[in-house]
Design brief:
Blueprint (H helix, E strand, L loop, with lengths): L8 H7 L26 H8 L14 H14 L3 E5 L2 H9 L8 E5 L4 H8 L8 E5 L4 H7 L4 E7 L1 E2 L4 E2 L2 H11 L3 E4 L4 H4 L9 E5 L13 E5 L12 H4 L10 H5 L3 H14 L5 H11 L2 H20 L4 E5 L12 H4 L7 E6 L2 H11 L4 E2 L9 E3 L11 H6 L6 E5 L5 H15 L2
Parallel strand pairs: 2-3, 2-4, 4-7, 7-8, 12-13
Antiparallel strand pairs: 1-9, 5-6, 8-9, 10-11, 11-14, 13-14
Helix pairs in contact: 1-3, 3-12, 15-17
The structure holds pyridoxal-5'-phosphate.
Length: 430
């Protein structure tokens, strides 16, 4: 089928990018477990290597199974193209790579996945890049942080560890005015709940490890391009606007137009950084995406039920879930993620750090793991794990204080989830 956006989300999550296998008629997308592809002749090979013809060369760059997933996610996000890669963190580097150079910076929200804060505050310095962390509720501070060397603004739609929703239209307007792209990590929301591109984002990144795959089987990442940013409007993005020496002076933006970022991601990013998604991982994620809307509806309904119940529990000091009327971010649900505030939130326990540790050790249905977005309910004490490398100030800003536990609500029966939480809370406070 064609990938017309006229089709509904439930149809596109099953069909976009896929067609019966032309060689065999196989209805399900085959796992093309191959490293290389035979060239028709030497001329064909040369045209492929010159980017004059689109086709398969080598699976570090492109693979037919991965290509279906790329088209599927791009369609669901309303983008023009997507590049899949080996993990969510790889996607973040791949998103920044064409934009940044030594001495440039990214203006990032303080409310991010712990690993992203570490990647941005420490590791990217090795490339000569830097990050400026700002409270994204302070719009004046975001605008002020953007300077001549800023090449991107970065935030999460529904921010890990949960309970916070970014005002994407407001941040997009600031980035737009400054002439820099807005990158939104849409992992916790998924394209079913939030469409950052429709709200003004330039690029969307995903850890497909989470809800898109949905069952905790494989790691993966994806970068989706809106195709809307004018890379040639300034001299800030020479990787996309200036002649590329590795391709005989080809200019990506001039040559590929709205697909410039996607082509660069494959022809330069995957070719030289090699953070490639393998076809087995793409297969698992394609299987997961087919049921994305069904799972997200249940995740959201369960999260609403459990969060509201937890809020009234005698051992609970507070619940930060943007779906609850008590949340200061409840008012943003309507514009940013109208189908629900996701299934990730934090709960603060009256007993502090010690109670949190006892609580996670006492749960039986919930697993204590460094993951989220699984069909299974998961829990983690962020301060002693994912956010352990951060300073106390960074932990607090990220919503991962020591007295707080992060919960990722699965799609089990909520009666069972509440009973499990109740017995663990009682043990933690016994
Ligand atoms: C997990 C996660 C990442 C990192 O993804 P990996 O696949 O683990 O590399 C980035 N951002 C968010 C919001 C995440 O939840």
């Amino acid at each position: 089928m064609s990938d017309s956006p006229a089709f509904g989300f439930d149809t596109l999550q099953i069909h976009a990018g896929a067609r019966p296998d032309p060689a065999t008629g196989a209805r399900q997308t085959p796992i093309y477990q191959t490293t290389a592809y035979v060239f028709r002749d030497a001329e064909h090979a040369a045209a492929l290597f010159n980017l004059q013809e689109v086709g398969y060369i080598y699976s570090r760059l492109t693979n037919p199974t991965v290509a279906v997933l790329q088209e599927r996610i791009a369609t669901l996000e309303g983008g023009v193209g997507a590049v899949c890669c080996s993990s969510g963190h790889a996607a973040q580097i791949m998103a920044l790579f064409p934009l940044m150079g030594p001495g440039t910076n990214v203006v990032a929200s303080t409310r991010l996945y712990g690993g992203t804060i570490t990647q941005f505050s420490q590791t990217i310095k090795r490339f000569g890049w830097s990050a400026k962390f700002v409270d994204f509720d302070d719009e004046a501070a975001v605008a002020e942080a953007i300077d001549d060397n800023t090449r991107a603004v970065f935030c999460e739609s529904i921010a890990n560890p949960g309970g916070y929703i970014t005002d994407i239209p407001a941040i997009a307007a600031i980035a737009d005015k400054a002439g820099v792209p807005l990158i939104v990590d849409n992992t916790s929301a998924t394209p079913y709940l939030c469409n950052p591109i429709a709200l003004g984002a330039t690029l969307v990144v995903h850890s497909t490890t989470k809800y898109l795959t949905g069952n905790g089987t494989v790691t993966g990442g994806c970068i989706v391009d809106s195709g809307k940013f004018d890379w040639s409007a300034s001299d800030k993005f020479p990787s996309l606007s200036a002649p590329e020496p590795a391709y005989h002076g080809l200019k990506f933006h001039e040559t590929f137009g709205p697909l410039a970022f996607t082509f660069h991601g494959i022809a330069i990013g995957l070719r030289d950084l090699g953070m490639t998604m393998n076809p087995q991982a793409a297969h698992y994620t394609l299987m997961g995406i087919e049921t994305l809307s069904l799972r997200m509806q249940r995740h959201v309904a369960n999260a609403m039920d459990v969060a509201a119940w937890l809020e009234t529990h005698e051992h609970v000091a507070g619940v930060t879930y943007a779906g609850l009327p008590s949340s200061p971010y409840n008012g943003r649900v309507e514009t940013v993620c109208p189908k629900g505030a996701g299934a990730l939130f934090t709960v603060a326990l009256k007993g502090g750090y010690d109670a949190c540790v006892k609580f996670v050790d006492s749960l039986e249905i919930f697993s204590h793991v460094a993951n989220l977005g699984d069909t299974r309910s998961l829990v983690i004490h962020s301060a002693s794990t994912t956010h352990r490398q951060l300073s106390p100030e960074q932990q607090k800003a990220a919503g991962a204080s020591p007295e707080v536990v992060r919960i990722s609500i699965g799609i089990e029966d909520t009666a069972d989830l509440k009973a499990d939480l109740d017995q663990a809370l009682n043990k933690a406070h016994g």
